[in-house]
Every structure is written in C-alpha cells, then in structure tokens.
Amino acid sequence: MSSNFSTLILRCSDPKHLREIQAVLTAGGLLLSGSSSGVFFHNSLIRAYTRLSSPCSSLLLFSDLLRSGFLPDSHSFSFILKACSLIPARFTGLSAHALAFKLGLDSDLFVNNSLIHFHSVTGVIADARLLFDRSYQRDSVSYNSMISAYVRVGDLGNARNVFDEMPTRDGISWSAIIAGYAQGGASKEALRLFSRMQEEGFVPEGKTLVSVLAACAHMGALEQGKWVHGYLRSNGAKIDVFLGTALIDMYAKCGEVDLGLKVFDEMPEKNLLAWTTMIKGLGMHGRGEEALQLFSEMERSGVVPDDIAFIGALCACTHAGLVDRGRQIFDSMYHCYGLRPKVEHYGCMVDLLARNGLLNEAKELVDCMPMEPDASVWGAFMAGCRFYRNVELAEYAVKHLIQLEPNSSGVYVLLANIYASSGRHADAKMVRYLMKKKRIEKIPGCTLVEIRGIVHQFLVGDTSHAQIKDILMKWDEIEDRIRLAGYVPNKKEVLLDINEDEKEDALGRHSEKLAIAFALISTEDGATIRLVKNLRVCTDCHDATKLISKVYEREIVVRDRTRFHLFKDGSCTCKDFW
DNA sequence: TTAGGGTTAG
C-alpha cells in the first residue's frame, strides 16, 4: 500500500493530480500524527511539489509536518531547502536552518550541502563558504555547490580555485566551471576546459554542451558549434528546448541563420526563449519581415511575449527599416499585453526612427519619455544624426551623452567623425584634443576568425601572430588590387595626430583587415570568410570589405557588436546602414 | 526518498 502511493507520487507529473493524492493520504490518516510513515509521505510530497514547480505547496506541507508533531529528518531538510532555494524564501530557509541546527542535523552531509546551496542562492555567499569550510565531511556535491555559488555571482577566480582544489571531479564539476566561463564571456577558456574534460575521459552531457554552444556562439566558432551538433546527432541525443535554443543561437551568431531555422522547425516543443532567440537571430541578419512573421506566429500559438521578446521584434524592425510595424509593435506592448515599455524599448524606437531619417520624431520621443533617457537612447539618436549629417542635433545628443558617460571613447569618436565628415575639421581636431587631454582611449578593435576549428584573434596593429609577415604582405597585395577597383582609404576614421601616410598605414592595421588577409591566405578559393568583431565596423573597413568580396570573389560574413553584414559581389546586406 | 551543472536582450 505504502509503496503504491510512493510510486504514484514519484511518477506524478501534474500538481493537480498530486493534490488529489495528498487528499487521499490525508483521508486515510497517513499524514496525521501517529502514522508510522507520516514523515516519509510528507517528504515525498514536498519533493514532488518542488519538482513540479509548486515550491509554495512544499512550504505548506513542511509546516503541516511540524504542526502534526512529526520530527523532520535529513530528507525533509534537503527537500525543503531546495524549495526555499527555488522561490527563493530566505526567511523560511533560515528557520529550517535553525531547526536543523537544534536537531543536530546540520552536520549531516546532505543537509549541509543543501544549506550551502540555499545560502548561495539567497545571496549570502560568505555564509555558504563558512558552511563549506566548517563541514565535517565533503563530497563532490559540496565542491560543486561552492563552484556554482561563485559562478552565480560572477566570481570566476574563486570558482576556479575550488575547482582546482577538488580531490576528484565529476561531470557536474566540469559542467559548472565551463558554464561559468561561458556565462562570463571567457569563451576561449570555456572551450579549452571542454577539451581538457574530454581528454580526462568525461563524456559530454547535454547540459554541458549547452554551455559549450553558448561559448561557440559568443566567439563565432561555427566549426566547433557544428561539431557539437554532429555529436548530438550521432549519439541520437534528444534536442530539448535548452539544446535547441543554444543551437539556434549558435547558428544565428555564427552567420548560419538558416541552419538555426532548421533546428527551430524540428523542435518538438518551443518556449518563449526559443521563439525569442529565433526572432532575434533573423533580425540580426536583416531578415526583419521573417522575424516579424515569426513573432505573430508565436502570439497566435499562445506564447505570451515578454519585454525581451519585444526587444527582439523591435530590433528586427530596426535592421529592416520597418518603421510602421515598429510603431504598431511598440504600442501593442501596453495595449495588448499590459507591458510598460522600458528604457531599452524606447532605445529601439529611437534607433528605428533615427535610422530612417525621422530625426525630429525621434527627438520628440526622447523628450517625452516617461523615464530619463540613458546612454543607449542618446547613442542611437546620435548615430542617426551622424548618418544624416545633422550636426546640430548631434551636438544636442552629445551634451547629454557626455554627462552620462564622461569617459566613454565612443561618444568622442562619433562626434569627431560627424565633424570631420561635414567638413568641420577644426571642431574635429578640438574633440581629438579633448580626448587626449582627458586621456580617453579608444577601445582597441578586435576581430576573431576561425580557421579549421581554431579561433585566431587579431587586435588593431597586432604583430603577435606567427604569420604576421605573410599577413602584412597579403594586405599590401589586397590594397593594390582593391585600389584598382576604386578603393580610396577613408582617413576620416583615423583619430590619431599623425601624418597622412601614417594614417593609411594605421587603417591597414585595423584588426578586421588583418583577419581578412589571414583568412585569404589560409582558406581555399571561394570559401566563405567569417569574422566576429567587438566594435562596430568602421566605414573604411566596410568599404574595403565590399571591394574584397568582389575582387576575390568571396562571401565575407562579419558579425559586429549588434548585427551581421554579408558582403557579396561588392555590396553588403546592411545597405551601408549600421 | 536526500543535495550540485544548461538557453534569449542591453
């Protein structure tokens, strides 16, 4: 009889059904004091409710357990602390901690591990560390909990220390530390550790591969991302919603959005995140119409968009120049879903209007925003001013931007470019002087290129690459050939106080030119070249890349900070608008 | 019957 109920609870997949089982147990007196299996059934129900995302029901059951005069055991504490971590319910968890202490159960390995996890999730990592340091016994779970505690707060140094100190690591230790590096943007280290993990004989699991795919997406490492996909396929792994979303994102961010669409179409279940990732992916590639079609399809399928999904939809409008659709979508946030647009949504709208030359409408929107515009709003406005050469409005934006970000190089660079391109060289010079005086430095440009599964990194003016001589020679050849096709170096982009010849040299050392030269000598004729940049593409590199795509008959896919450029036969999919 | 690792934007 008992084991029948136990199996029922264990297999139950619906909280409603669980409540029915609970009612039967109550009616049968199995949850009342005096019942020999009362603690056991309480525990089973607490665990099941937490598993089915009803942690509040778990809390209620725990208080029932105490009120009925039962003494909770170590299982009860493990289960209730997990529920408290999920909600998260700091005070209830603390009471449970105090009670476990009173009953002498806090030294139990399982309870202590649950406490470490609970304290780290509810924000007091020092307490988690104290429990870890003072624990009577430790196993890999204790270490793993501590690693993920540090990962959660972004303290990778300490996470790595704990990882390195572990006597024996398991798959979860590797997964936790790889996820940490991947989430912290240290993708190269994440992938390095992933190789080490395999060298040490650990078989990759789905959860680990999700992080690995995120690292590939971040670095634009298509080959490695494809390897993961192939690995999953050859092992007949089920592509769950996490893996599917990670694959879609990886393909989109590595320039193969159509492969992402294929994964998306084949996914048996799609949640909001999967839809949002696909919509954003299409938007990044300038395929705004398709992205918006998908957004509507998502709404029809009953998935309710959140504020991030709206950012995806608005960005799609921006990259495709769909002003009216953007206005409609922005209005629908509140009118259809009761979501009040945040500053980011205003930023998208300002971007959309300004990019399409509606500078006055963009300014009106900025002026009547219900919150203070932030740097991204002013930045979007200013980029529009730059494109349409509206110096007066650009200066207006700069006044605000400099107050918000007095040390950001981007503002000064953009302003100097605006002055230079509208012929106000004295003003441009003044900006350069100001930058120098304030010791504001440009963020160095960095480009990544993956050749045969290895990611190579180039910084602006970088001479550290083993083949730098060949690369520079190749660039000279490229420059000669594209000059014949009409290339004129655009020296306005150079903000250094150097002479004209030196300016040309400085342009030729931009990280993406070095990366393209390297890619041309390292790949066979006709192969697509894929680059990932940390900054926006500069006008000169954009012009040069268009011509290279024509002269060398190569497709060149460049991912910049926010979107993709596909250079083909002398033109770019961004239509020179970025 | 216990505890630990995963995906989207800015």
UniProtKB/TrEMBL annotation:
Keyword tags: Repeat
Alphabetical GO biological process terms: RNA modification
PPR repeat residue intervals: 139-169, 170-204, 240-270, 271-305
Keyword Repeat in annotation: yes
Matching InterPro entries: DYW_dom, E_motif, PPR_At4g14850-like_plant, PPR_rpt, TPR-like_helical_dom_sf
Cited PROSITE patterns: PPR (PS51375)
GO-annotated molecular function: mRNA binding; zinc ion binding
Domain DYW as annotated: residue spans: 486-578
NCBIfam families in UniProt: PPR (TIGR00756)
Protein name: Pentatricopeptide repeat-containing protein At5g66520-like
Protein's organism: Dioscorea cayennensis subsp. rotundata (White Guinea yam)
